[in-house]
């Protein structure tokens, strides 16, 4: 019996080969009708025999293309229309825009094979692409995802490309970025003064290799922005890049041509190998095995971030030398957003790079490389961006209104929500600079337009001085506003990921978050649900002399911790040319000395007290150096930290912790052993508090989140202790451990509090 179904498929179903997949499936099952893209997803009109239709629909559910994410399939029976063939209909606009854009991905094996085949017409063509790979998010201006709505619109296809594009059985059928040397974008090599050197790809790649081997710095336009590249095996170019980029400590990411080359000098676990080779191609932080790269790539650290090539040009460059290892860091000044527009790149990077490799296709949405690390064969995000954004995070219950959440001021990503999805933006960085703020506003406008979101409620952090708080006020234009506590958002982000509805014990550890008592929180033990929270405990407060200045000059925190513990300032290693008497007066009079309890700030202060770090040039530098020092030993001394428990809160004594650290120092215990003992003391005290909260509340689910958990010793130690004690431990897997994920928590908390508006 012949039947007719209208089938609507929602999710990431455009730009991933979904229509040709449906077309081939229809031919295989003798289905008549058509398939089309619209602004809601993919619509299929399918007529055929009942059993054939069942098989057809089953295959749609189970065998969809690798880059697709199917969120929902709706099926409605209609009257038989007597279609006599199956075809692909032109795209349409509907009332709603709820379709999604796939992330940018690594070049696929089929394209790579053609790329290196001298007989292929796309031999060494750096924009080779097909329906299974290449740029997507970075080139899209609007939906539906058609060539006219991308930055490929200005490159009309040649006859050969058009034939492939129109052939439903071809791998490049309706591949919007498809092109070839005849009709597509081209690559150019320039000096930093914009003098053109070459536009021949063979000459360009050889010259770039030559420049890099000679010690020059080359800016190379990638998928989502510019990289700055130099030879990672030589000190001179790496130091030159550090000086020009104004980046004395923060590690550089590397790129090399093969997994085999990585294995020569870095340890790789099975999970790390899998992620390195994945289509997303993130940077993975790996432990050094053998020192063959410059020690200035990651100064003071034994872990190095590395990735494999993912663009055709990168593959071509590394094909010239199997031993080539390059620094491949974001094209920007330290803490600024990545450059992605050509004129701006020359303007902002010409004092850093000696040469520029550019191409004449516009990047619409900039996108840094994602960064991940693995603990216990479990991957965690440090930065969620290229390869993963803008894949939606699905929720069970629909949002009653469109929402916008602005995230935090550090490691920023914002979020939008409608229907049953939340979409987190790409990594936008720290919002201190006017350039980053401008890029942030532009990215918000782009997301709202492309995903057709018209926010009716605007959500931000409750910090009164955050840029995002002020911006959200302006964006709201009088519409309802919700302000969310920072650490509550950290916990609820993980609840959303794991679909947890009931209250949990939440441990939110970081450096800074505005508290409801107007103090600076960051060592939080909460009982939280999606709507509200109760603060159950924290480390005791101490002062930050000079406020923000103390976060940069961490010796000030060391001095404050000594003062708080009643210890003499002689224990501070960094006393020379310091205004110690002025700082002590500030502490005594509590002048410009905000109270804080963040784990990150405690790490900073202890790093100073142990003589490891005096000042920092980038966030978490002191804490990273302290962790690295602790990793040099396995010997430690057990520190029992005083814990005060009353009806309202459980307080871990920061003063007692510092006294016991100084006692070990007095005993001339080696600094690495004190550093490890400190880490284990934090773990043990935190575990005890979590245990006591479970005894009080009966709650067994515990969430760990916050930037401090990027510390491997802290994360692994506390995670294992909690699991051994029978806790169900939940961690962020789809969002970063740092502030890059709080917008998700803000969105969910906002939704739960809509009734109060």
From TrEMBL:
Residues 4-90 form the Acylphosphatase-like domain. One of its GO terms (molecular function) is carboxyl- or carbamoyltransferase activity. NCBIfam families: hypF. Pfam families: Acylphosphatase, HypF_C, HypF_C_2, Sua5_yciO_yrdC, zf-HYPF. Keywords: Hydrolase, Ligase, Metal-binding, Transferase, Zinc, Zinc-finger. GO terms for biological process: protein maturation. This is Carbamoyltransferase. Pathway: Protein modification; [NiFe] hydrogenase maturation. Residues 202-387 form the YrdC-like domain. The lineage of its organism: Bacteria, Pseudomonadati, Thermodesulfobacteriota, Thermodesulfobacteria, Thermodesulfobacteriales. The active site is at 19, 37. It catalyses: C-terminal L-cysteinyl-[HypE protein] + carbamoyl phosphate + ATP + H2O = C-terminal S-carboxamide-L-cysteinyl-[HypE protein] + AMP + phosphate + diphosphate + H(+); an acyl phosphate + H2O = a carboxylate + phosphate + H(+).
């Amino acid at each position: 019996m012949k039947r007719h179904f209208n089938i609507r498929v929602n999710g990431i179903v455009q730009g991933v080969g979904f229509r040709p997949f449906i077309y081939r499936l229809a031919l295989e099952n003798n289905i008549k009708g058509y398939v089309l893209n619209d602004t809601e997803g993919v619509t299929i009109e399918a007529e055929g025999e009942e059993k054939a239709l069942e098989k057809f629909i089953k295959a749609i559910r189970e065998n969809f293309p690798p880059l697709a994410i199917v969120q929902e399939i709706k099926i409605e029976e209609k009257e038989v229309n007597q279609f006599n063939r199956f075809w692909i209909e032109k795209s349409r606009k509907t009332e709603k825009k709820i379709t999604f854009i796939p992330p940018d991905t690594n070049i696929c094996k089929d394209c790579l094979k053609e790329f290196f085949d001298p007989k292929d017409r796309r031999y060494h063509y750096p924009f080779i692409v097909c329906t299974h790979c290449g740029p997507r998010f970075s080139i899209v201006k609007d939906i539906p995802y058609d060539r006219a709505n991308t930055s490929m619109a200005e490159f009309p296809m040649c006859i050969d490309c058009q034939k492939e594009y129109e052939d439903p059985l071809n791998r490049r059928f309706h591949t919007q970025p498809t092109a070839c040397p005849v009709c597509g974008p081209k690559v150019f090599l320039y000096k930093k003064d914009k003098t053109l050197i070459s536009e021949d790809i063979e000459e360009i790649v050889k010259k770039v290799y030559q420049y890099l081997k000679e010690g020059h710095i080359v800016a190379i336009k990638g998928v989502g922005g510019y990289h700055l590249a130099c030879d990672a095996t030589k000190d001179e170019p790496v130091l030159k890049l550090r000086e020009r980029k104004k980046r004395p400590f923060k590690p550089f990411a590397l790129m090399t041509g093969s997994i085999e080359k990585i294995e020569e000098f870095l340890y790789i676990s099975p999970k790390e190998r899998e992620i390195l080779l994945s289509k997303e191609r993130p940077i993975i932080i790996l432990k050094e095995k053998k020192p063959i790269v410059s020690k200035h790539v990651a100064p003071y650290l034994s872990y190095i971030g590395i990735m494999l090539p993912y663009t055709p040009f990168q593959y071509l460059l590394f094909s010239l030398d199997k031993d080539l290892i390059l620094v491949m860091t974001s094209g920007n000044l330290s803490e600024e957003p990545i450059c992605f527009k050509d004129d701006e790149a020359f303007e902002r990077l010409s004092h850093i790079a000696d040469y520029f490799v550019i191409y004449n296709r516009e990047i619409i949405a900039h996108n840094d490389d994602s960064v991940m690390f693995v603990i216990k064969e479990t991957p965690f995000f440090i930065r969620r961006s290229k390869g993963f954004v803008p894949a939606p995070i699905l929720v069970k219950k629909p949002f009653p209104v469109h929402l916008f959440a602005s995230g935090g001021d550090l490691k920023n990503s914002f979020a939008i929500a409608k229907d049953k999805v939340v979409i987190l933006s790409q990594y936008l960085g720290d919002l201190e600079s006017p350039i980053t703020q401008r890029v942030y506003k532009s990215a918000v406008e782009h997301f709202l337009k492309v995903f057709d979101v018209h926010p009716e409620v605007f959500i931000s952090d409750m910090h009164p001085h955050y840029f995002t708080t002020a911006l959200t006020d302006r964006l709201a234009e009088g519409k309802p506003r919700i302000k969310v506590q920072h650490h509550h958002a950290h916990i609820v982000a993980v609840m959303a990921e794991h679909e947890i509805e009931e209250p949990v014990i939440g441990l939110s550890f970081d450096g800074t978050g505005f508290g409801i008592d107007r103090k600076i929180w960051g060592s939080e033990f909460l009982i939280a649900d999606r709507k509200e929270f109760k603060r159950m405990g924290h480390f005791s407060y101490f002062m930050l002399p000079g406020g923000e200045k103390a976060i940069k000059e961490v010796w000030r925190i060391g001095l404050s911790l000594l003062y708080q513990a009643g210890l003499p300032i002689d224990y501070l290693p960094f006393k020379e040319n310091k205004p110690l008497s002025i700082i002590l007066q500030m502490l005594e009079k509590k002048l410009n000395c905000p109270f804080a309890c963040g784990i990150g700030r405690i790490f900073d202060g202890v790093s100073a007290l142990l003589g490891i770090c005096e000042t920092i040039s980038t966030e978490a530098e002191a804490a990273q150096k302290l962790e690295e020092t602790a990793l040099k030993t396995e010997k430690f001394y057990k520190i029992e930290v005083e814990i005060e428990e009353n009806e309202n809160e459980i307080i871990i004594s920061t003063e007692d912790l510092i006294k016991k650290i100084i006692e070990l120092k007095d005993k001339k215990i080696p600094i690495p052993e004190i550093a490890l003992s400190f880490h284990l003391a934090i773990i043990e005290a935190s575990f005890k508090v979590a245990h006591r909260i479970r005894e009080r509340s009966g709650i067994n689910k515990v969430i760990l989140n916050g930037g401090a958990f990027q510390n491997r010793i802290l994360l692994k130690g506390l995670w294992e202790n909690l699991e051994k004690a029978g806790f169900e431990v939940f961690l962020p897997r789809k969002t970063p451990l740092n502030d890059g994920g709080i917008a998700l928590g803000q969105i969910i908390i906002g939704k739960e509090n809509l009734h109060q508006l």
